[in-house]
């Protein structure tokens, strides 16, 4: 019989609450013959305060035994900004070579958007996940003086750019509209811009049926608001992708419904699925967090593991739930229960 060996990292703040709902829905949607085995990890602020530790080599070795990871959120105001994010989250993405950071945006019927009318929004951002300015390649001189100089070098390798661009082309080819937009800033960032544009144009020759487009990142933020229907698949670097996917979330139902997958397509390492939102310490422990983003991340997880029907059922349940949600205020648990009932039925 089949089984899924899942590592679970609830993390900080609302991460605990939303992951519980994600697991609830996962349990409800899986067929009887699929055995779900989970192991929970205590990563985040509590572990850090108790031991001073972030992610260790032993943790990585242990996590590596799993087929996938479900993560809630990492980050807490009791720890200086960046320590947990870099020590757990980014370390995981880098160690497990999660170079495809997949962030779909779909405006579902009945979901409020700050945009005028009800525009067609159905695109996916393929954000590079292991390079760019996230590599920690930089330094400071004359620190703390009025003449402090700080550099933060964006690292872009031909290998790294090509593999993520190729992945994005393949995803675009598999979608009805078959359109891929490169988002960068090649009018200013000449070196990285050249590499991205060049690789993009070269790989494009292997995908003649995919329509291609290029937009500077600043202009892309305009189109995401004024004409989001023009996007199908977007490929971009780590930092641009971070920024535009928050905007993409804001226009397509908000951060409460934005899902993501940190994917290692070779499956050499487990891929990790997480809501785009953070730990939201201001509402943690109150049962107010919307678990929808985590549940949609579970759908991405299911699809990654080859459970396509189950993934589709989870997405349909979320669609129906959002469509009928109206003005009712429900707790985290109530939304999770409603979704679990829908996927089971
Ligand atoms: C995200 C987050 C992270 C990122 C932070 C918490 C390090 O904003 O997943 O988008 O910048 O990638
Ligand atoms: Mn972000």
From TrEMBL:
The record marks 134, 185 as: Important for catalysis. The keyword Metal-binding applies. It catalyses: (2R,3S)-3-isopropylmalate + NAD(+) = 4-methyl-2-oxopentanoate + CO2 + NADH. PROSITE patterns: IDH_IMDH (PS00470). Pfam families: Iso_dh. Mg(2+) binds at residues 218, 242, 246. Pathway: Amino-acid biosynthesis; L-leucine biosynthesis; L-leucine from 3-methyl-2-oxobutanoate: step 3/4. NAD(+) binds at residues 278-290. Gene3D superfamilies: Isopropylmalate Dehydrogenase. One of its GO terms (molecular function) is 3-isopropylmalate dehydrogenase activity. Its main location: cytoplasm. Substrate binds at residues 93, 103, 127, 218. Keywords: Amino-acid biosynthesis, Branched-chain amino acid biosynthesis, Cytoplasm, Leucine biosynthesis, Magnesium, Manganese, Metal-binding, NAD, Oxidoreductase. Its EC number is 1.1.1.85. The keyword Manganese applies. Residues 5-339 form the Isopropylmalate dehydrogenase-like domain. InterPro entries: ICDH/IPMDH, IsoCit/isopropylmalate_DH_CS, IsoPropMal-DH-like_dom, LeuB_actb. Its cofactor is Mn(2+); Mg(2+). Binds 1 Mg(2+) or Mn(2+) ion per subunit. It is found in: Cytoplasm. Catalyzes the oxidation of 3-carboxy-2-hydroxy-4-methylpentanoate (3-isopropylmalate) to 3-carboxy-4-methyl-2-oxopentanoate. The product decarboxylates to 4-methyl-2 oxopentanoate. Belongs to the isocitrate and isopropylmalate dehydrogenases family. LeuB type 2 subfamily. Homodimer. This is 3-isopropylmalate dehydrogenase. The gene is leuB.
């Amino acid at each position: 019989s089949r089984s899924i060996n899942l590592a679970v990292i609830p993390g900080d703040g609302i991460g605990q609450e939303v992951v519980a709902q994600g697991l609830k829905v996962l349990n409800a949607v899986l067929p009887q013959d699929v055995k779900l085995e989970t192991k929970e990890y205590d990563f985040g602020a509590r572990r850090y305060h108790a031991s001073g530790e972030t992610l260790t080599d032993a943790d990585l070795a242990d996590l590596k035994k799993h087929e996938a990871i479900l993560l809630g959120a990492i980050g807490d105001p009791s720890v200086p900004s960046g320590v947990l994010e870099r020590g757990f989250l980014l370390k995981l993405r880098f160690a497990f070579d999660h170079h495809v950071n997949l962030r779909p945006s779909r405006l579902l019927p009945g979901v409020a958007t700050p945009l005028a009318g009800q525009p067609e929004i159905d695109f996916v951002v393929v954000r590079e996940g292991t390079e760019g300015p996230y590599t920690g390649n930089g330094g400071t001189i004359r620190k703390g003086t009025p003449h402090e100089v700080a550099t933060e070098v964006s690292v872009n390798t031909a290998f790294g750019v090509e593999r993520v661009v190729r992945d994005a082309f393949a995803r675009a080819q598999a979608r009805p509209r078959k359109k891929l937009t490169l988002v960068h800033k090649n009018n200013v960032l000449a070196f990285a811009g050249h590499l991205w544009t060049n690789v993009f144009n070269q790989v494009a020759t292997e995908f003649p049926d995919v329509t291609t487009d290029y937009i500077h990142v600043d202009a892309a933020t305009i189109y995401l608001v004024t004409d989001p229907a023009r996007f199908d698949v977007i490929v971009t670097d780590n930092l641009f992708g971070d920024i535009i996917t928050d905007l993409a979330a804001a226009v397509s139902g908000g951060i409460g419904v934005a899902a993501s997958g940190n994917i290692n397509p070779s499956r050499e390492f487990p891929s990790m699925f997480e809501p785009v939102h953070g730990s939201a310490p201001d509402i943690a422990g109150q049962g107010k967090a919307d678990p929808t983003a985590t549940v949609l991340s579970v759908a991405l997880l299911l699809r990654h593991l080859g459970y396509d029907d189950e993934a589709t059922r989870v997405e349909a349940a979320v669609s129906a739930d959002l469509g009928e949600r109206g003005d009712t205020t429900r707790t985290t648990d109530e939304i999770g229960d409603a979704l679990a009932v829908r996927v089971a039925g």
